Amino acid sequence: MPDMLAIISKAVFEKEAAGRAPGEVLPVDRYRSASKHLEPLRAGGRLFLFTVRPPSESLWLVAVLEGLRFKDNEWHAPPNRVPITDVTALIPRIRFESGKGIQAAKGALGMSLQTPRALATGDVALLLGAVGGSGGAVEETRINLTAHDAQGPLPCLCRRCLPQSNERAEAASMSFTRARVDAEGRTLYYWLPDELLPNTQEVAKSVQSVLAARLSSAG
User: Which among 17, 15, 41 is positioned nearest to 28, based on CA atoms?
Assistant: First the structure.
């Protein structure tokens, strides 16, 4: 289940978040859109909301919504807890799940992001890293099923240890990116080898299938 990017228009941002600046939290709890491109969120995943700010087309991460449900032609979620963050410097590094980066002519950045799209796992790591660790506020609201492991070569991702972990790690000369799957209101975190990032969705579907089967048999 992919995390998704969606854009908040300049007009809407200035109406609903007038005067807000990076570092401040905008407690938005919905995204008003019935776009078919957001349909994957029905199965889980987070919605990363952005806006483009003048005069130099700065790209701001405005909010991260999770626990989403679609009602009355809009997406509802608990209030956002992630601070507004200027992520302009990350534009050349964002690749999306499709493998294509952000391609926009000068003055058309906002327009180029009008269509919601799936973020790659690496994109999410970059974005939450830019937030400066406050991504942990997003993580802590989930029911984390990951078992505690203090002896493994990679950082533990259990409920207690997760807030101290980073989005990326290295072990045995390999690089890993933190990933997760959701099933029946539960979340399992795991380390995905970077060499498998092109197959993030296939791996996630496999892990989620096993998790759902175990939850079903336990229930």
Answer: 17
* Whole-angstrom Cα Rg for the chain: 17
| Coil/strand/helix, residue 115 | coil
Instruction: Kindly state the percentage of the chain with pLDDT values over 90.
Output: 44
| Amino acid identity at 34 | A
Degrees, nearest 5: CA angle 36-38-41: 130
The helix or strand, by DSSP H or E, that contains position 109, with its residue range, turns out to be helix 109-112
* Contact predicate 169/178, CB 8 Å: yes
- Evaluate whether 61 touches 80 at the Cβ level (below 8 Å): no
Cα 138 from Cα 163, distance rounded (Å): 10
| Residue 132: predicted pLDDT | 57
Model pLDDT, residue 36: 93
Strand partners, 208: none
CA distances in angstroms from 45 to 41, 77, 111, listed in the order given:
6, 12, 24
DSSP letter, residue 144:
B
Peptide bond into 55 cis (omega under 30): yes
Separation of alpha carbons 92 and 183, rounded Å: 33
pLDDT at 154: 95
Closest CA to 169 of 153, 158, 188: 153
Report the predicted TM-score, pTM, of the whole model to 2 decimal places. Answer: 0.65
pLDDT digits (tens, 9 = 90+) for 81-138: 889 999 999 999 999 988 888 988 888 898 999 999 999 888 888 888 888 544 444 4
